[in-house]
Amino acid sequence: MTTPSPSSANNGSSRAGRAIQALPLLFLSVLAFYNMDILHLMLAPNPIQDGKITYSPTRSVTLPEKFHLIPGVDPVIRNVVTGFAPSTLEEDKPSAWQMVVFLSDCGLLHLLWCLEGERGASRGGPAGFPTLFQTLAQLVGGGTTLPIVYFLSHVFRSPLPARPTYSIRINTHHAFIYTFLLLPLHSLPVWLMYHASTLQDRHWWTWLWQLYPVRVSLGYYILRTLFETRGRKQASTATASKPNSIHHSNHYHRHLLLALLPLIAISAGLWLHTLLASSYSLYEIFYPSPLPDELLGTFTGQMQVLLKWDYIFVVASSLLWWGYEMWDLKRVGRVTARGIAVLVVMWVGMGMVLGPAVGVAVVWLVREWYLVGGSGPGTEGFEKGKEGR
């Protein structure tokens, strides 16, 4: 096998070079802002009247006077919650199908970012603050925000050759804490936002879902502190104690798969449910086609356009960021261009059958295999296997 030369390994590793390389991510953010048409949404008539969101006598909910205990938070959240009203109150039924899938996928992608933040190499960089950036994405739109986060993450993290194995590995014990918290604080509210028995209950769950990244983060640090206090502290380098052990590597990857599996199953299940149970086509649910005349200039119509484009750009930027990460692995000889192409085809296939976010999670796991102790070309496990043969 050919070992990359130092010059080729360092090619593109400078911060300026990585910034130029990642400019398409910034282009995606600008394109998302244009297509989501946020300015026209601000000009559309607001459905809030007299402290209520009303679409008809049977589709009306009362806004809570005070939900959060922090001053100034409720007015901001009220504007965000209003954006969910067309789908949760059944004014726009195709959007209801789209939003259940979209929001569930956001939980899976949020877990991936929490796992990225658990790397020692992520401390101090953008990937080390998933709560901050995911909260911004929740408030102003992931389609415009996440490409910028991915850009910063790609530019400011250390090149692969400069990072020892222990700083690359994720603390898998902490990963299960995130999964444990996301299920009740994200997945359950999303389901009840669209399936609670009354519209008022759905509205309450919509409020509760807001700021879930903050609640997950607080719960994470509380539970982590409790576990450490009780003597179950797991050092961040524990999983790196045997970096050359194939058995240890398999144990690490198995833990990551188990941590991701519940949210993968939820996203895949909801995607399949949409495919099989919805009376609307995938084109009607997910593609931002031109609005009919009756929805032009309305809040419902503008939200439909915004949320469809939002989903598209969240997935597109996530996949493009993954592509940059895989190309870094190719640069240091851990994967081939053909291997990356095969994984892209795998994502397309899985995306069609199980949903785009499930596809992202699966190829992320494969990338983790190449990154940490896998047997792909260029890894120590691969070389040891060759020597054994």
From TrEMBL:
Domain of life: Eukaryota
Transmembrane helix is among the record's keywords: yes
Ranges annotated as spanning the membrane: 20-43, 133-153, 174-192, 204-223, 256-283, 309-327, 339-366
Keywords: Membrane, Transmembrane, Transmembrane helix
Protein name, as recorded: Uncharacterized protein
